[in-house]
Design goal:
8-stranded mixed β-barrel; 21 helices; binds ligand C2E; 594 residues; Alpha-Beta Plaits; alpha/beta; Beta-Lactamase; elongated; 6-stranded antiparallel beta sheet
Length: 594
């Protein structure tokens, strides 16, 4: 009996100790919670307290105010709370919660939208942490919620600015490529195709040039709006820049669907647009490529579509063209190169090299030919023979040519001022620069800006340009000549046999093509031909430059034939401006080349 009493007393003491322990723990918990609640009040956050077993959820008054429920503290269930979570965020919310309950994350952190009493949604950021028993099972979870709607809206705005085109409101290139990647992944799973269309408006530049950029912009906006009606909801139309658009058609079953879309785009682009009382219409050229038939990578597909678009242009515009593997690789390269060339000037990839022209009698450097160089990051150093024809075809030569003229004249004026000797700078010009007398006004401006005397500028023309007089170059050449600008004929002898243009145009110099000079040693005709050219030119009061002079024998022959000037690797290769300056000053101070 006494043993039993002692046992009971011991148990009683133990129980008392546990009660004391528990009430101490409860006190600590209450204090902790009070501190937490205080901290949260200060942090302007609402509190929640959840029992994962019974699903009871306690929401603090501040939390309810945060999400706009307009109620005081109240109890609910986690199921009801879930019904307030935006349906697009529900799965994510449940996943994050589940990971935390399983102990896979240290803290619970989730951004989601929750509905308020007026039916709208607020973005909230919820933090929380589960309390766990000895078996690591969560028996309670507490946390806070803060309203991040404003922050989210700001983020969305920034994201929108970074991914949408500001003029048309369409997705931009970055977003388009992202969507293309998503479409490709989905098609891979669904075993379907993706159509990629590169759309370029034909003759849009004309609208910009004749009616101004404002009208051009309005036109683009209108066309973008209209194009929007040509597609399904899941399709994407993006603006790549300028008048170029990209269309992504995901989940296609047959290429026939693409053809229908192309027809719709062509018809839409044709519809007349009226802006500021002007009515005009454009057309479009479309290049089409298909995933997976033509490629797997977004960047490769984009290149295909671009090349196919150029093919459509080459076929007369206002049409669409499917990419084919047989499509000439050179054509692809050419068209891709043109798109890079478009940016070459603004990206500072162009420069001028200068090649000495020496007097055949004294050997002094009397001038230089400015030769354009393009360093393209994608293709490396591109030879002028490759990119100049491209620039001419695309009309880019006009802007580039203006830059060449200005740079060369400013440079020549500087050298002349430093060396105090006469100097002539020769600049190549192409036919498109003559359109509408453009070259005359450019030369006037450039001479004024640089202070270079007109006589010190020589424009190198091709025979073709003079032969095609009907294009209206004659007038411009006469004006240039009247200003004092020198005119020379480049690559003389290679083009046309009719020489009557030499009398009709105010030509000052002939440059004998380097192929004749190269053949001097091995062909019987070449010496006779060169000799005849020099005599004929002199009879007409025209000076002669021998081009491509590489050997001492060539120098001797040309000098004997009274050729006036010599140019070629024998004297100097084309070099950057600073190196040419050294050659020039050496020639001025140390003596002649010959
Ligand atoms: N084998 C050999 N070649 C020599 C020798 N001496 C000079 N050359 C090369 O012959 C070309 C002379 O220029 P071009 O006949 O006007 O022929 C030029 C010109 O028609 C065109 N070009 C260059 N710059 C411009 C430019 O600013 N505007 C225009 N429209 N065309 C340009 O590109 C063409 C090629 O220019 P480049 O490649 O720089 O080639 C240059 C030059 O490097 C030599 O001794 N041997």
């Amino acid at each position: 009996m006494s043993e039993r009493i002692a046992e009971l007393e011991a148990e009683n003491a133990l129980l008392k100790q546990r009660v004391i322990g528990l009430s101490k723990a409860e006190k600590v918990l209450r204090e902790t919670e009070a501190r937490y609640a205080l901290a949260m009040q200060g942090a302007n956050e609402g509190l929640w307290d959840w029992d994962p077993v019974s699903k009871e959820l306690y929401l603090s008054a501040r939390l309810l105010r945060t999400i706009g429920m307009g109620k005081d503290t109240f109890k609910t269930t986690s199921n009801e709370w879930l019904s307030w979570v935006h349906e697009e965020d529900r799965e994510h919310y449940q996943q994050v919660l589940c990971h935390h309950l399983k102990g896979e994350t240290e803290y619970f952190r989730c951004e989601y939208r929750v509905q308020n009493s007026s039916g709208g949604y607020v973005w909230v950021l919820a933090h929380g942490m589960a309390l766990r028993n000895d078996q690591n099972i969560a028996y309670r979870m507490v946390g806070s919620i803060g309203d991040i709607t404003e922050q989210k809206e700001y983020q969305d705005k920034l994201l929108h600015q970074a991914t949408y085109d500001h003029l048309t409101g369409l997705p931009n290139r970055a977003l388009a490529l992202d969507r293309l990647s998503v479409a490709i992944s989905r098609s891979r799973r669904n075993k379907t195709s993706v159509g990629l269309l590169f759309v370029d408006l034909d003759n849009f530049k004309k609208i910009n040039d004749t009616l101004g950029h404002e009208v051009g912009d309005l036109h683009l906006k209108e066309i973008s709006n209209r194009l929007g009606y040509c597609f399904r909801e899941e399709d994407t139309i993006a603006r790549l820049g300028g008048d170029e658009f990209l269309v992504i058609l995901p989940d296609l079953d047959s290429p026939k669907q693409v053809e229908e879309v192309c027809e719709r785009i062509l018809a839409t682009a044709m519809q007349p647009v009226t802006i500021n009382g002007y009515e005009f219409s454009t057309s479009a050229s479309i290049g089409v490529t298909i995933y997976p038939d033509d490629g797997y990578e977004p960047s490769g597909l984009l290149r295909n579509a671009d090349a196919a678009m150029y093919q459509a242009k080459a076929q007369g515009k206002d049409t669409f063209c499917f990419f084919t593997p047989e499509m000439d690789q050179e054509t692809v390269r050419k068209f891709t190169m043109e798109s890079y060339l478009r940016q070459a000037l603004s990206k500072d990839q162009l420069s001028l090299h200068y090649q000495s022209i020496v007097s055949a009698s004294s050997g002094d450097v009397v001038g230089a030919e400015a030769l354009l160089r393009w360093h393209c990051p994608e293709y490396g150093q591109v030879p002028p023979d490759q990119f100049i024809p491209l620039a001419e075809e695309s009309g880019l030569i006009v802007t580039i040519g203006d830059w060449v003229l200005e740079t060369a004249c400013l440079q020549a004026a500087e050298w002349m001022a430093t060396a105090c000797v006469p100097f002539k700078i020769a600049v190549n010009v192409s036919y498109p620069q003559f359109r509408d007398g453009h070259i005359v006004s450019t030369v006037e401006k450039v001479l004024k800006k640089s202070g270079l005397p007109a006589q010190c500028l020589e424009l190198e023309l091709t025979e073709r340009l003079l032969m095609e007089d009907e294009r209206g170059c004659a007038e411009a050449l006469k004006k240039l000549s009247a200003m004092g600008v020198q005119l020379s004929i480049d690559d003389f002898g290679t083009g046309f046999s009719a020489l009557n243009y030499l009398q009709r145009f105010p030509v000052n110099t002939l440059k004998i093509d380097r192929s004749f000079v190269a053949e001097l040693d091995c062909s019987k005709e070449s010496p006779a031909l060169i000799s005849a050219i020099i005599q004929m030119a002199h009879a007409l009061g025209i000076e002669v430059v021998g081009e491509g002079v590489e050997t001492r024998q060539q120098v001797n022959f040309l000098t004997l034939q009274t050729c006036d000037y010599l140019q070629g690797y024998h004297f100097a290769r084309p070099v950057p401006a600073d190196q040419f300056q050294l050659q020039f000053s050496e020639s001025c101070y140390l003596g002649a080349y010959i």
